[in-house]
Amino acid sequence: MRPKLRWMLLALAAAGSLLIPMLARLGASDPPDSEIARRCRESRPGWQSYQEDIKGQVGARLVAQWHGEIDAVRADGGNVTVSFRLSPPWDTRDAALPVLLRLPSGEELLQDTALREGGLRHYHFSLPEKSAPPPWVAVHYPHRERRVALDAAGEWRRVP
Length: 160
Known about the structure:
Blueprint: H1 3-26, H2 33-42, H3 50-58, H4 60-64, E1 68-76, E2 79-86, E3 100-102, E4 108-110, E5 113-117, E6 120-126, E7 136-141, E8 144-149, E9 155-157
C-alpha cells in the first residue's frame, strides 16, 4: 500500500471512531424518572453559579427541557410558596428541579418541598424563625432570575 493511502485510511478510521459515539448519543433517551428525581433531590446549587450547578448536578439536557414561568408567589405564616406553570415534559414529572429564593436580608433558601398539581409546580420555602413576610423575593430558577414585589397581602400573581 502506498504511504499516502495508508495515512488517509488511518485518518478516516480515527474520524469514524469519534463519529460513532456522537451518533449513538443523538437518539439517547432521558434517564428513568427515579434517577431524575434523585439528581434533583441531591442538587445543591449556589446562587452565583446556579445555572452551571444544576446543569452539572442534574444534567444539561434535562435542564434545557425545562420551560416555565412564575404563576404566583405567596408569603404567609412563615412560609413562601412560588408556583410555576410548566411545559412538557416537566409538567408531568414528579421530579422538581431545584429553585432558590433570596430574601431582602440576603439569605438564600433552597425549597423545602415541591408539589405537582396539574401543570403547576408549587415550591415551598420556610422563612427563618421570627421573620416578617418579605416585601419582595428574588427567585432563581432554570434559565432565569427574577425579583418579585409582593403586595400588602404578601401575594403576587401573573397577569394573563
